[in-house]
Every structure is written in C-alpha cells, then in structure tokens.
Amino acid sequence: MDYQNRIGSKKGSGGVASESQLNVHRKQRVSRLISSQFDFESDPYVFKNHLGSLECRLCLTTHSSSESYLTHTQGRKHQLNLARRATLDAKQQGGTHQATGTTSVQKKSYVKIGRPGYKVVKIRDVDAMELGLLITIKYPELKQGEEPLYRFMSAYEQSVDTDSQGWQYLVVHGEPYENVAFKIPSTEITRSWGYFDEDLKEYYVQLFFKSPEELT
C-alpha cells in the first residue's frame, strides 16, 4: 500500500496512513485471502452463465465477479437459505433411514473449556459510507480440523435477555469453547463474512449495517 505524498510524510518515505485507510487495506487483504481459499468447483450452487456472470442457484441471484459472489455467500440471505436446505435434506434423509431401518448419526460430544477472548472494533466502509464491526476471537485450543462458524439470531429466538427490542445477536461457535454472542442493532446487514487464521488461531467476523446512524 503506497503512503507517499501524504500529509506528514517526507519525500522518498512512506506517508502516514489514516485509520480508515488501514481498515480498507486490512479488508482487502483478508478478502484476497478468503478468495484464494474458496473453491468454486466444489460449490454446488454457483453457475457461470453465457454472459460470464455468476449465478447462485440457491438464492436466484446474479453476480458480476467472483468477489461479489463470495460476499453474497457470506451474507444473511444465503446463510438462511443454506440452513433451510440443510433442514430439508435432514428430513428427507431421516425418512429414508426410517424406511430402511438404518440408525441415525449420533451428535458429537465434547468438553467445553470456557469462553474465548475477543475484541470488537467499529469500522467504516469509505466507499459505501456504511458503519460496521470487526470482531476478532482467539481460539488457541481449537480442535484440529475444525473451523469456527457464525450466524445471526433474532431476539425472538432467545429467552435470556428480556430487554432485547430493537436488537439481534451474532453467535459464534468454535469447539471446544463455549459459544459467544454479541448484541448488535437489528438494522439490516448488507454484508458479512468470517475468516479463520490458522497461524494466529484467530477468527475474524466483519459486518456492515445499512443504516448510516452511529453505532451505540
């Protein structure tokens, strides 16, 4: 990232980058890392049409680039449709098992070792002028071969927080740690994604809100 010719810099040296510029650079870097690891060949829902655009057969949407499709797959609409599809497949497989007399797969069990450490930072997309959050969660003892997962949960899906009007929850799961939930405004989320750094053992979740209002 070139920081030359910026205020506070000397000729021939790197300039001073603002916090928003660093956030843009960090977002682009992690986005490239995710794109390089995403296998489009194994995605059963992606289809390249005659115009060269990518279509999502699950959500019936069209995307001009692989980055746009990747962002869509991390969004709320695609994740909800994946969950519905998985539920439907599970019901169909359950009916097949009952008819053939086979046994179902038992749920995995593990010993929880407590809550992971985390950090929440407010960010802004300088292009779309959208406010968002960057959440970093540390998983130093994550199970080998496992990756954390996240999902959004409405206030109506829980009974712990009674004063939850106008809020929703971001729930992150990583075995063998306890689930962690972040209370966020119930504003529409335009895009979100998660990335696990195996070297640092850190899981990043970034999301942006449609509303331009300041986050509380």
TrEMBL record:
Region (Disordered): 1-23
Molecular function GO labels: nucleic acid binding; zinc ion binding
Domain U1-type, residue spans: 51-85
Keyword Zinc: yes
Cellular component, GO, one term: U2 snRNP
Pfam (any one): zf-met
This protein's UniProt keywords: Metal-binding, mRNA processing, mRNA splicing, Nucleus, Spliceosome, Zinc, Zinc-finger
GO biological processes: spliceosomal complex assembly
Protein name as it appears in the record: Splicing factor 3A subunit 2
Family label: Belongs to the SF3A2 family.
